[in-house]
Design brief:
Blueprint: H1 10-38, H2 42-52, E1 56-57, H3 58-64, H4 69-81, E2 85-89, E3 97-101, H5 103-125, H6 130-147
Antiparallel strand pairs: 1-3, 2-3
């Protein structure tokens, strides 16, 4: 027997779409602002922030910034070529590599951080009440925790499910 699909009701669908649209637009806007004002992508900025807290093993850094190792490596390569980050062998793991912020990287981050924080305030913090901001933070922490869980082994693709509304009503 095919499992019943728990389709989203209209309010859940509106909330889901608002999340997808809002998060997508927010991240695109912040990325564009960093590119235009400091020549950094949001991914590069995020890496510089993490490295400002101390050197990091590349695998740990990939987990912290939610990038694949391949994507992280490409991004760090760009930062190394720009003189913002340097790589060094990991003393504890012969195959491992550490990434460290250079002085130039720290200066670039310091210059970008003020403008970035002002943009985040303008687009998020100043738009939401204190309670809304807390609720968003709490909700997204729960979402992040849920996405860290392994996917169930018995996952069925939506296209294989025969019950419920048609494709026009499916979650976007």
């Amino acid at each position: 027997m095919t499992p019943v699909t728990p389709w989203l009701d209209p309010e859940q669908q509106r909330s889901w779409r608002a999340l997808v649209e809002g998060a997508g637009q927010l991240l695109a806007r912040v990325d564009r602002h960093l590119r235009d004002t400091h020549g950094l992508t949001l991914a590069e900025y995020e890496i510089l922030v993490r490295l400002s807290e101390g050197h990091a093993h590349m695998s740990e850094l990939a987990t912290q910034v939610s990038h694949s190792r391949a994507r992280l490596s490409q991004t760090v390569d760009r930062l190394v070529r720009a003189g913002l980050v340097e790589r060094s062998p990991c003393p504890e793991d012969r195959r491992g590599v550490h990434a460290t912020l250079t002085e130039r990287g720290a200066g670039t981050l310091a210059a970008a951080a003020r403008d970035h924080v002002l943009e985040v305030r303008r687009l998020v913090v100043d738009v939401l009440s204190a309670d809304e901001l807390t609720a968003v933070g709490t909700a997204m922490a729960k979402v992040a925790a849920a996405t860290d869980q392994p996917e169930p082994g018995d996952h069925t693709e939506p296209s294989e499910q025969a019950d419920g509304p048609g494709p026009t009503d499916q979650t976007v």
